[in-house]
Amino acid sequence: MAKISLNVDGRVHAIDADGDMPLLYALRDDLGLKNPRFGCGLAQCGACTVLVDGEPVRSCITPVDSLGTSKVTTLAGLGHGKAHKIQEAFIAEEVPQCGYCLNGWLMTAAAFLEKTPKPTDAQIRDAMSGLKCRCGTHVAILRAIKRAALA
């Protein structure tokens, strides 16, 4: 065990952990955050997605000792205390069903729109291709991302 420092949502936290412990476990178990979620544990579904220095990362396979001084943003920190435009668009388009996968979609979409503010439908589909939604709300999700891009 080692003392590891994590910068999460603008606050620095110190945890005692093995360096190879997945970031997901640190966020949920040590910091008590409800998002991201554990989905597959294999980086295939996206439910565990967080932003590390603005890039979407699957926290279920990211060791805490690989972060160094990187800034981790979770869904709770995405809007800096208010709803982010992607969150507002998901609400407006009535996307949520069970909500389990939303963390991954929201975090990935936020990072994507930061880099591609005026995306085409094909670019949106391509950027979101690695995420899973078992409820089948993909069409509403794509509409919400397009809405956020236009905001």
Q: How large is the radius of gyration?
A: 15 Å
Distance between the termini: 46 Å
Overall geometric form:
globular
Residue stretches low in confidence (pLDDT < 50, at least 5 long) are none
How confident is the prediction overall: mean pLDDT? 96
Lateral strand order in the biggest sheet: 2-1-5-3-4
DSSP strand tally: 5
User: Helix- and strand-based class?
Assistant: alpha+beta
Largest sheet: 5 strands, mixed
User: What is the helix fraction of residues, given as a range?
Assistant: 25-40%
Give me the strand/helix succession: EEHEEEHHHH
Share in β-strands: 15-25%
Tally of helical segments: 5
List the helices and strands and how they pair.
Elements lengths: L1 E7 L2 E7 L5 H8 L18 E4 L2 E4 L12 E3 L11 H8 L9 H14 L5 H7 L10 H13 L1
Parallel strand pairs: 1-5
Antiparallel strand pairs: 1-2, 3-4, 3-5
Helix pairs in contact: 2-5
Model description:
- This protein is of the alpha+beta class.
- The chain is built from five helices and five strands; from the N terminus they run ββαβββαααα.
- Strands 2-1-5-3-4 form a five-stranded mixed beta sheet, with helices on both faces.
